[in-house]
Specification:
Pfam families: DUF5753 (PF19054), HTH_31 (PF13560). With about 280 residues, this protein is of the alpha/beta class. It is about 55% helix and about 15% strand.
């Protein structure tokens, strides 16, 4: 059980338990009294230091009186928490994956992302994110909820003691129109602003480099102080967390390969600034 602590699925489970209790308005000690556990155990399960058994999760959810749908979602995490890889297919699976990604971002000491076509989520402006979600045809209320969630995730790179974040961005992302010209100009100016932070490195990978492992698609590489590294893939309606040592090492090699091809941070900032000028000229 302890061996699975720190995995994306275990982190998602701890977050789900914490959020369910918070939503119910019950404190840790009161929940411990009602469910028959020690408050330290509850705390350890909610912070991810320990992984509870499925029957323990069921008892906690019963005390919290969560809805049947939410109960099944959280129990599904608990039942499969020992599975090393985490693959979901279909839009219904994405919320759990998103919870895992959020918890990985919060716990990571460093994040490296390869984004060949668009600006990485942690670096997006609200309007850029909104433009992406609107094209997907979501109801306005769902769109705004996801936009605000995306904005809250940015805190991991802007808070005190932030995570170190390296973003390798394909040149295409600077020229592909997402939203209006104004949205693009604002987004690229924001990249330049974030590039000035000591914990953020933005590197542009130019076109014409020839084949490299990044051609296989985008990925995020998380490193933690208390667990092994994990690679995350997120696609249109599916996603996966891969912790296998062999795969992780292959993606370390891919990062080194992309690093060799990418512009320096200073050259990347200048390149982005030129792209800003082009978008601003199209607005006039």
């Amino acid at each position: 059980m302890a061996a699975t602590a720190g995995t994306p699925r275990a982190r998602a489970l701890s977050a789900a338990l914490r959020e369910a209790r918070t939503a119910s308005g019950i404190g840790v000690r009161e929940l411990a009294r009602q469910a028959g556990f020690h408050h330290v155990e509850i705390s350890n399960w909610e912070t991810g230091k320990r992984v509870p058994k499925t029957e323990t999760v069921a008892a906690i959810l019963g005390s919290l009186r969560v809805s049947a749908q939410e109960r099944e979602r959280i129990l599904d995490l608990a039942r499969n928490v020992h599975e090393p890889n985490w693959l979901t297919v279909g839009l219904k699976g994405i919320p759990q994956q998103l919870a895992g990604a959020v918890e990985c971002e919060r716990a990571a000491t460093s994040i490296v992302e390869w984004a060949p076509m668009i600006v990485p989520g942690l670096l997006q402006t609200l309007d850029y994110t909104r433009a992406i979600k609107c094209v997907g045809g979501l109801p306005e209320s769902d769109t705004e909820l996801r936009v605000m969630l995306s904005a809250s995730r940015r805190e991991v790179i802007t808070k005190r003691n932030p995570v170190d974040f390296v973003a390798f961005i394909g040149e295409v992302a600077l020229s592909e129109p997402i939203g209006s010209c104004e949205v693009m100009a604002e987004q690229l100016n924001y990249l330049i602003e974030l590039a000035g932070r000591s914990n953020v490195a933005i590197r542009i990978v130019p076109l014409g480099t020839g084949w490299h492992p990044g051609f296989a698609g985008p990925f995020v590489f998380y490193e933690f102080p208390d667990a092994s590294p994990v690679v995350h893939f997120e696609h249109h309606s599916s996603g996966a967390f891969i912790p296998a040592a062999h795969d992780v090492e292959e993606y370390r090699k891919a990062i080194r390969w992309i690093d060799d091809l990418a512009m320096s941070e200073d050259d990347s900032t200048r390149f982005i600034a030129k792209a800003v000028v082009k978008w601003e000229e199209r607005t006039s």
